[in-house]
């Protein structure tokens, strides 16, 4: 998520009258409610509003907190769209209206939002960031200070490797919620400003170190705390963010690798991180065979690719240890009429940097993080999927005759979505 180029008038902490907001996310059972209770009971001053998104009848009892200057509001189902990958008007109206109503009360120093275990933090950030960029009313009334993800130290590693989805776990938002456990927990980690590790008591030091290394690789920019760090929790989570007048932007570990940004050094030979780049297209059949095979040791791999049989299309690739998927996200600029290109120096500079004489902006780019991964073997397997020099000489007309499992998979998925399959 990029920071918008245009900026509103700068605000200082002293003249910023907007309601500061802290959002707490994390998978089901990670310990979000425990963290919220610690924050409410441990704070030393200020009037707090708590907005709870709880899809069950259970939840925090507001009665004990009223005398401490805390008022509890329950969101019910208004955040449902957040967990269904919807960022349209319904999402904006539901979350925005709740936050603005509390801000308009004018009697709170901070709003704490506890999300359900299926919410992805990036979608919450988009509500605030889009309001800021488009100068919507929310941006003048509230600011997002922190996105906190509570991490279950005992289950995260297994959840990362899980092959089941939220439906199989019985915690989905509905029949059309097809997200995998693995991708959900990883994205909750990657898109957070603060990571709070819960349930570390009794966990062997080796497993704790491996977990921290994983979190640092997935999200190098996040502050990492333990649930037992009660003083640190209040200061980091309920304190103002530096440059809070700006939106929250994210650059997870895989993105830093692609852009060549520095990453923390992990002092263990078991951990490897890197980037794979190439300009030649992949052969669709050979790449499909690789995708269908095991990638032992690969924890995270994300980026973009192109295949010879569909040379105009740009595909995204996303993989965790337990799940992988691809999708077409549009056409490459080289296959797009020039009168449809964006204007501006920033676009021109980026395109020039990515452009090759032979293939334009089409390229293979993956950032990856591995644990006990045979890097040389993995790179060789990817290299073998690229077209050979003789195949490149066949040209696009020849490439389109290659057998294409990707096209069949897309057609199958489209037919399923339209209800044509039994």
Structural notes for this entry:
The chain has helices at 32-42, 63-66, 89-105, 121-133, 137-141, 156-160, 166-169, 181-190, 205-218, 230-237, 253-259, 284-292, 345-354, 375-385, 389-392, 395-399, 405-417; strands at residues 19-25, 48-52, 70-74, 110-114, 142-152, 194-198, 223-226, 271-278, 298-305, 313-320, 324-331, 364-371. The chain has 422 residues and is an alpha/beta fold. The protein folds into 2 domains: 19-250, P-loop containing nucleotide triphosphate hydrolases (Rossmann fold, 3-Layer(aba) Sandwich); 271-417, 2-Layer Sandwich (Hypothetical Protein Yjia, Chain: A,domain 2), CATH 3.30.1220. The strands form 2 sheets. It has a 7-stranded parallel beta sheet with strand order 3-2-4-1-5-6-7, sandwiched between helices. Helix 12 (284-292) runs antiparallel to helix 14 (375-385).
Per-chain topology:
Elements: E1 19-25, H1 32-42, E2 48-52, H2 63-66, E3 70-74, H3 89-105, E4 110-114, H4 121-133, H5 137-141, E5 142-152, H6 156-160, H7 166-169, H8 181-190, E6 194-198, H9 205-218, E7 223-226, H10 230-237, H11 253-259, E8 271-278, H12 284-292, E9 298-305, E10 313-320, E11 324-331, H13 345-354, E12 364-371, H14 375-385, H15 389-392, H16 395-399, H17 405-417
Parallel strand pairs: 1-4, 1-5, 2-3, 2-4, 5-6, 6-7
Antiparallel strand pairs: 8-12, 9-10, 9-12, 10-11
Helix pairs in contact: 12-14
Name of the CATH homologous superfamily of the largest domain: P-loop containing nucleotide triphosphate hydrolases
What is the β-strand count? 12
Q: Which structural class is indicated by helix and strand composition?
A: alpha/beta
Q: Into how many domains do the coordinates divide?
A: 2
- How many strands, which pairing sense, and closed or not: the largest β-sheet? 7 strands, parallel
Share in β-strands:
15-25%
| Rg from Cα | 23 Å
Output the strand order for the largest sheet.
Answer: 3-2-4-1-5-6-7
Low-confidence stretches: 1-14, 77-81, 84-89
**Helix content bin:** 25-40%
What is the highest CATH level, the class of the largest domain?
Alpha Beta
Number of helices: 17
């Amino acid at each position: 998520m990029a920071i918008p180029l245009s900026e509103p008038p700068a605000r200082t902490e002293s003249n910023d009258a907007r309601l500061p907001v802290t959002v707490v996310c994390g998978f089901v059972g990670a310990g979000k409610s425990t963290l919220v209770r610690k924050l409410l009971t441990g704070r030393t001053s200020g009037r707090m509003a708590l907005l709870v998104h709880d899809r069950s009848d259970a939840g925090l009892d507001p009665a004990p907190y009223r005398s401490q200057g805390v008022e509890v509001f329950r969101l019910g189902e208004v955040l449902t769209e957040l967990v269904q990958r919807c960022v349209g008007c319904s999402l904006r109206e539901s979350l925005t209206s709740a936050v603005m109503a509390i801000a308009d009360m004018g009697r709170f120093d901070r709003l704490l939002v506890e999300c359900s275990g299926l919410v992805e933090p990036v979608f919450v950030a988009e509500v605030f960031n889009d309001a800021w960029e488009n100068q919507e009313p929310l941006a003048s009334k509230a600011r997002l200070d922190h996105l906190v993800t509570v991490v279950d130290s005992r289950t995260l590693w297994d959840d990362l490797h899980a092959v089941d989805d939220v439906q199989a776990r019985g915690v989905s938002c509905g029949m059309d919620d097809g997200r995998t456990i693995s991708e959900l927990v990883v994205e909750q980690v990657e898109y957070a400003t603060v990571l709070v590790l819960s349930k570390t008591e009794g966990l062997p030091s080796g497993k704790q170190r491996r977990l921290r290394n994983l979190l640092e690789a997935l999200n190098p920019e996040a502050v990492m705390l333990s649930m037992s760090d009660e003083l640190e929790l209040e200061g980091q989570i309920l304190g103002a963010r530096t440059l809070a007048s700006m939106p929250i932007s994210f650059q997870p570990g895989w993105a830093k690798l692609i852009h060549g940004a520095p990453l923390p050094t992990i002092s263990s030979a078991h951990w490897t991180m890197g980037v794979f780049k190439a300009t030649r297209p992949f052969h669709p059949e050979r790449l499909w065979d690789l995708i269908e095979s095991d990638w032992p040791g690969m924890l995270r791999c994300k980026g973009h690719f192109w295949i010879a049989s569909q040379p105009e299309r740009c595909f995204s690739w996303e993989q965790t240890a337990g799940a992988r998927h691809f999708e077409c996200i549009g056409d490459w600029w080289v296959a797009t009429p020039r009168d449809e290109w964006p204007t501006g120096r920033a676009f021109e500079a980026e395109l020039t940097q990515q452009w090759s004489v032979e293939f334009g902006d089409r390229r293979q780019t993956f950032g990856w993080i591995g644990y006990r991964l045979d890097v040389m073997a993995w790179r060789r397997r990817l290299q073998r999927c690229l077209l050979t020099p003789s195949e490149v000489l066949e040209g696009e007309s020849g490439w389109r005759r290659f057998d294409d499992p990707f096209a069949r998979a897309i057609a199958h998925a489209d037919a399923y979505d339209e209800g044509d399959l039994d």
